Amino acid sequence: MPPAPMEAEHTNHSCLLPLTPPLFADTPASLLEDFEQTRATFVNAVNSVVSNIPVEHASFENTVAPLALADASLIIGCQQTRLLEAASGNESIRTAARKVYLETLKIYEWFHGRRDVFDRVSVVYETTNDANLDEEAKRMTEKWYRAFLNEGCQLNDVERKTLQEINEDIRSNRSAFRKVLVEAQDCILLSRDQPSGLSNGVLDSLEQVTDGAQGTPMFRLGLKSSMVKTALAQIQDGNVRKAIFEASEKSVAEALPFFMAVLRARHRRAVLLGNKSWAERLLSEGMMKTPEAVQSFLTELQDKLAPLAAIELDNLKDLKERYLASSGKQDEYSKGFYIWDTPYFHEQHLKQSYQLDSHMLSEYFPVEPVLENMLAIFTEMFSISFEEVNETTARALTDNPRTLVWHPDVKLFLVWETNTQNQKTFIGYLYVDLFARTGKYSTCANFSLHPGFTDATGNPHPPATALLTNFPSPSPNKPTLLQHLNVIQMFHELGHAMHDLLSRTRHAALHGHGVPRDFIELPSHMLENWCSVPDQLASISVHYSYLSPEYAALWKHENGAESLPPRELPHHLTRQLAASQRADIALASLRQIVFAQFDMFIHGGGVHDEEEVKRWWREERERIGLVFVQEKGREPADLGHGFATTVHFIEGSAGSYYSHVLSQVYAADLFDSAFKLDPRCRETGDRYRRILLQPGGSRDPMEMLRTFLGREPSQEAFLRRIGLAM
After folding, report:
1. Domain range for residue 211?
2. DSSP assignment, residue 187?
3. Closest CA to 493 of 512, 518, 468
């Protein structure tokens, strides 16, 4: 539990502020004890409303508002345990956190299954237009009304019992699926010569082991997504890339049964509630409204992209043929172009057409200075600042500074806002957990920890949010160096963090990410645009040799140079790197459409067995994405289950993966309309923050877009970027 408020001196300001940061002194027992206390408080609040408020007298003020306030503590507990499950270095804490998270879901099921509460919320919902409520109160009421319907308050007792059994089925299988992915240590062993092409920094991060059978020294390459992407982009030998890709597609095999069980249970649940599919219910709350509208959007965009993607693919095929001819590595099957070839020959395309060398470029993106420079962009755009908590500040915040974070790798920043009189106001907490470790969530993600809301005293409760990445830890000789793709990925997740930190709502359930699912990705895709602007790229970069005298000496030694390279990425390279974002963009967009169409296939129709799902993943990925997934004539008996090696189709993007594509389209429109001429314009940043970030889920997202743009959003900017519209 958080400590009592205390005076914590902000070292850069003269003011003293009472700060109560989240603490991580948890034990398995304390997690369960805190949960029981939170549950009891919430149950008492629910029972109090039912006991004291007759149905006919229910109003927003006496029913929805007090329950929403009680819900805030439940949200905090739920979000913090999700983080601990994903990132704690202690397996017993991860296990306890998983148990608490599942129990929290049961509380929500119990709450939204209470017909006596539903009766009162229904009265408020039916009178919202007559009660003179503001937009946030109306949307809070509507959100809960839909939640009660989704938990079957309209069903009879037998049907509700069935629904409860289905809910338990979904919960347990989702949890088991997530546990497999978090704790997976799948790897592929490579001989010393097989990783040829991998940068020294990546090689240094690989564990060196001995093959037990032969006693041969080997590299252990983990099959986490960030490492697989890097390996496929750098390793020269196509057979090695193929082996890594196929091993990745067949990794975490224990997760597949849980994946399929969740899909079956979701369909049963949808049918019981009167929907044709899981996606039909989900989409009714979003911007696109129906699976048919999503299908139409994706198919229309796919048809526009396909001709250009075919040209891009022909170019990559030509690059491969020329490479094979010059290297003398041709054989019967080598001339085919496969999915494991795309990342490598995309990199070769960048080198040849844009004179870009990913190894050299990565030297300009050491992860920690890049993070600092990204935060500087937000400082300028949004009039905010980030203070990394040092030992002095940590001791002012708590008697035990180690409890401020869940792992020693984690950095904590206090986030402040500056008004026009240069006065500072505390906003919230940003946590950054950069490096891979055993038991940690396997991909890059943002985790909301505490929502912002107005507490019982009328004061703001500050938000807390966490950036988790899985980059290799620094080697003894070099810092962790990022590929440009990793830079974009980190900026994307920080976009979620900014949405969390800059949202301002009275109710926790509407804060930040409490928006329709097809709007959640928009703020993140918006910020990716800054990675395609030359002067912004330069400002993010710093060559690692400038970070210490030791790094400078090492770089000179490795490169046989007497002087250091430029401190920032040179202008001609930033221009080329920005221009390169159009390289093979239609193929990359089709890949996203593949995932979105797959999501609609598994969530937007009937029940499919495992073989049908695998067949779609194999055949439609080739048809839509245009690239072979297997060697013709050498198809393995089991082509794998790459769809079950990621959380996307089971967790947040389930039924709404299309939102990634939709957000890219709308983000291009927003950026080109408002930020293109001056990406750091404070006035534009303030307007963007006020209209699109600050409301959270308290306003209709399409209405917010229209307000900001002054018109309906359009595909034109996105298509123009890739040469398909003027």
Report:
1. 187-249
2. E
3. 468
Over its C-alpha atoms, the chain yields an Rg (Å, rounded) of 26
User: 388 and 532: one domain?
Assistant: yes
172: which residues sit within 8 A by CB, 6+ positions away? 102
CB 109 within 8 A of CB 480: no
In-domain check, residue 84: yes
Q: Which has the higher per-residue pLDDT, 11 or 569?
A: 569
Does pLDDT of 12 surpass 80?
no
Q: List CB contacts of 532: < 8 A, sequence separation 6 or more.
A: 578, 581
Same domain flag for 504 and 428: yes
> What sign for the dihedral angle of Cα 133, 135, 139, 142?
positive
> Cα separation of 281 and 279, whole Å?
5
Residue 652 has pLDDT above 80, yes or no: no
Q: What is the pLDDT at residue 595?
A: 96
Q: 556 in a domain, yes or no?
A: no
Q: Which residue in this structure is represented by tokens 């795309």? A: 342
**20: Cβ contacts below 8 Å, ≥ 6 apart:** 2, 3, 4, 5, 6
- Does any domain span residue 110? yes
- What type of residue is 84? L
Q: What phi, psi does 448 have (nearest 5°)?
A: -75, 130
Dihedral sign, Cα of residue 510, residue 512, residue 513, residue 517: positive
Q: Are residues 144 and 162 in the same domain?
A: yes
Region 259-282 average pLDDT: 94
Q: Name the percent of the chain lying above pLDDT 70.
A: 95
Looking up residue 665, the CATH number of its domain turns out to be: 1.10.1370.10
Instruction: Count the domains in the chain.
Output: 4
Give the 3-state secondary structure of residue 583. Answer: coil
For residue 627, count other CB atoms closer than 10 A to its CB. Answer: 22
Tell me the average pLDDT across 55-73: 96
Cβ-contact 375, 387 below 8 angstroms: no
Both 357 and 369 in a single domain?
Answer: no
| β strands within 445-557, DSSP E | 445-450, 453-454, 460-461, 464-471
CB 219 within 8 A of CB 189: yes
Read off the pLDDT of residues 286-339 as tens digits, 9 standing for 90 and up: 898 889 999 999 999 999 999 999 999 999 999 999 988 888 776 545 668 999
Q: Which residues contact 198 (CB under 8 A, 6 or more apart)?
A: 230, 231, 234, 235
Asked whether the whole model's pTM tops 0.90, one would answer no
The share of the chain scoring above pLDDT 90, in percent, equals: 74
Task: Encode 588-601: b = buried (16+ Cβ within 10 Å), e = exposed.
Answer: bbbbbbbbbbbbbb
N- to C-terminal Cα distance for the chain?
A: 57
Could you please report the per-residue DSSP string of 618-662?
A: HHHHHHHH-SBSS-TT---S----GGGSSSTTTSTTTTTTHHHHH
- Residue range 504-522, pLDDT digits in tens: 999 999 999 999 989 999 9
Strand 464-471 versus strand 424-435 pairing type? parallel
Average pLDDT over residues 202-222: 84
User: What 3-state class would DSSP assign to 568?
Assistant: coil
103 and 165 inside one domain? yes
**How far from 607 is each of 13, 277, 539, 610, 624, CA to CA, in Å?**
59, 9, 50, 10, 22
Does residue 124 sit in the same domain as residue 193? no
